[in-house]
Amino acid sequence: MTRGNQREMDRARAQKKAAQQKKPKESAATLTKRKEADAEILRAKQRKAEEAKTGAAGGGGGTTKK
Question: Which whole-number Å values give the CA distances from 1 to 4, 9, 13, 35, in the listed order?
């Protein structure tokens, strides 16, 4: 065993490269759908945060820590 673990490292690299080549590319239609879905989720989060912010500000600050 004059090569040490080089053979194992090369084998692992080859497996990783082969796994990346097997992954199908994401189509443009799928990509845009995913982006739109993500954007809608973020908009919902922002609305919820704004509602919480306005609710806390209008409530007289009853739950603030000092």
Answer: 6, 14, 20, 51
